[in-house]
């Protein structure tokens, strides 16, 4: 068989890479705090869809959309009733600023360490919450969203890397997926809060929805002050003694010599590189660069954010009443959370590829069914009344799709890019990932409502086709990295049927971590096939 499976189970099966040390309380707490970075991201994802479906919010800030919606309520074209560029700009402005911020976050993360990047993100985010909760006009709303975006850019740039570096290799899947778990928790909280604030008499509930983002922001801001730096980052910044002490502490054992040596080698390689942005373009980093771009690109082309942002709007389009729409969004939020838990507890056993491939097939089935069901009722005219039972079946298939995403592309979309980079280009690589993710999130958010208006139900088939392409991509090009220590990843690429030609073809300058050289491709590939 071609494809990543040929090199699958990874170098980790070999005894030497299985460094001593397990899940210590110290590392658990540090990971928990860091993962709350996911909460602020998730809360933002979940909050805007609900708020933009609240009448008092719409009539105050987007009166033309409010008007159009009222007309459509009397039987007009359902596909187009929320189509407004200004409204989508409210949702997507956050993603543009997150994109820009993530590029700057790379130098902060590399120079000052991962924790200060999280802190910077938390503070900016807090200011954004205040502006949004107090908004008097669209400008304040959008400015607030831009500040939130800067916070998200910094947090998403530093948190996944932090988690991947802290985790013992054999638990990296679980600990890193904690980030996605927090994202889904944030989305669910946001959905529940919208459901509650929508009922507040006086029409100011949306203010509460927007301002409450300050709660997760305060947790990550204060929490980050207490976070220890990762040993990898300490070594990268030349603080060897501290790094060794920290490694002992996080692993809960003094027996860290082997892992420490590998980190030192990676740290040396990293310090030799003064231009990470240029270095990442070198041929030998091609596989990692492709993953840094392709994984977030595909993650967004699953169409997940159509559901996350617009679930209430989408359900309203399907003929649910206002409150019922928010409730359905709560249901998809719950499915998202619970299915992410499945991933947290299985990923280190079944491996990344198995989850990616199963999730892909499941999402495909869900998308096709939703497209067909909506098409059968609304056709191209977009005018129809749908019976309750029919709408419930649509929700059911949406849930099937969400579950598929939640145990595959959701968590792994953040895990894979954060772990495959060598230390010297890791912050730059993660910035590329965040930037592509945000760009695509922006594009999907901005394009969905106008596309739904024009492509109608066919839009769901477009996303389904993307799912086919990305699933094939994983099957062919993503090697299994389950259990491989983060500073040993090069060996995995060297053993891959396609990528080995790039990595073998080392174009010279700059030391490599000694481990890659010591292990050799043969040793690694040999272990890989057991
Ligand atoms: C994605 C988000 C998405 C969320 C849904 C994350 O991994 O990056 O765009 O909204 O998952 O749970």
UniProtKB/TrEMBL annotation:
It is a multi-pass membrane protein. One of its GO terms (molecular function) is symporter activity. Residues 30-482 form the Major facilitator superfamily (MFS) profile domain. PROSITE patterns: MFS, SUGAR_TRANSPORT_2. Keywords: Membrane, Sugar transport, Symport, Transmembrane, Transmembrane helix, Transport. It comes from the Eukaryota. GO terms for cellular component: membrane. InterPro entries: MFS_dom, MFS_STP/MST-like_plant, MFS_sugar_transport-like, MFS_trans_sf, STP/PLT_plant, Sugar/inositol_transpt, Sugar_transporter_CS. PANTHER family: OS09G0297300 PROTEIN, SOLUTE CARRIER FAMILY 2, FACILITATED GLUCOSE TRANSPORTER. Belongs to the major facilitator superfamily. Sugar transporter (TC 2.A.1.1) family. This is Sugar transport protein 1. It comes from Dichanthelium oligosanthes. The lineage of its organism: Eukaryota, Viridiplantae, Streptophyta, Embryophyta, Tracheophyta.
């Amino acid at each position: 068989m071609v494809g990543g499976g040929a090199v699958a189970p990874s170098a980790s099966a070999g005894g030497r890479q299985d460094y001593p040390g397990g899940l210590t309380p110290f590392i658990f707490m540090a990971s928990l705090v860091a993962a709350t970075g996911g909460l602020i991201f998730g809360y933002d994802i979940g909050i805007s869809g609900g708020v933009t479906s609240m009448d008092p919010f719409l009539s105050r800030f987007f009166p033309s959309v409010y008007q159009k919606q009222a007309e459509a309520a009397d039987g007009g074209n359902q596909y187009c009733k929320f189509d407004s560029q200004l409204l989508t700009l409210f949702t997507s402005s956050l993603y543009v600023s997150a994109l820009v911020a993530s590029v700057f976050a790379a130098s902060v993360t590399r120079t000052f360490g991962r924790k200060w990047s999280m802190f910077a993100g938390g503070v900016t985010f807090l200011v954004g919450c205040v502006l949004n909760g107090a908004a008097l006009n669209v400008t304040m709303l959008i400015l607030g969203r831009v500040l939130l975006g800067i916070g998200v850019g910094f947090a998403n740039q530093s948190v996944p890397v932090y988690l991947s570096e802290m985790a013992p290799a054999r638990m990296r899947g679980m600990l890193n997926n904690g980030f996605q778990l927090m994202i889904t928790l944030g989305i669910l909280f946001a959905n529940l809060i919208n459901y509650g604030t929508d009922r507040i008499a006086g029409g100011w509930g949306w203010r509460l929805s927007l301002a409450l983002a300050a709660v997760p922001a305060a947790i990550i801001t204060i929490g980050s002050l207490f976070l220890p730096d990762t040993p990898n980052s300490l070594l990268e910044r030349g603080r060897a003694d501290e790094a060794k002490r920290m490694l002992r502490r996080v692993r809960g054992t003094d027996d860290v010599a082997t892992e420490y040596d590998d980190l030192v080698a990676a740290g040396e390689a990293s310090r030799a590189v003064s231009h990470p942005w240029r270095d990442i373009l070198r041929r030998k980093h091609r596989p990692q660069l492709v993953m840094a771009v392709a994984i977030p690109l595909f993650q967004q082309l699953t169409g997940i954010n159509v559901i996350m942002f617009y679930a209430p709007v989408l359900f309203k389009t399907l003929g649910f009443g206002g409150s019922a729409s928010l409730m359905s969004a709560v249901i998809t939020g719950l499915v998202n959370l619970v299915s992410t838990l499945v991933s947290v507890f299985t990923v280190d056993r079944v491996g990344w590829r198995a989850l990616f491939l199963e999730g892909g097939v499941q999402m495909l089935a869900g998308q096709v069914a939703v497209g067909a069901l909506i098409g059968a009722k609304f056709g191209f005219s977009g005018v129809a009344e749908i019976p309750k039972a029919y709408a419930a079946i649509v929700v059911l298939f949406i849930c099937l799709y969400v579950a598929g995403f939640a145990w595959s592309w959701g968590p792994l979309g953040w895990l894979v890019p954060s772990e495959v980079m060598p230390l010297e280009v890791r912050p730059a690589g993660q910035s590329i990932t965040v930037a592509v993710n945000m760009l695509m999130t922006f594009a999907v958010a901005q394009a969905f409502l106008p596309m739904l208006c024009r492509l109608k139900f066919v839009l769901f088939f477009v996303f389904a086709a993307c799912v086919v392409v990305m699933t094939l991509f994983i099957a062919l090009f993503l090697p299994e990295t389950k259990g491989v220590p983060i500073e040993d990843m090069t060996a995995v690429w060297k053993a891959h049927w396609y990528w080995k030609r790039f990595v073998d073809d080392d174009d010279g300058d700059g030391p490599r971590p000694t481990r890659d050289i010591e292990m050799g491709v043969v040793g690694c590939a040999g272990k890989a096939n057991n």
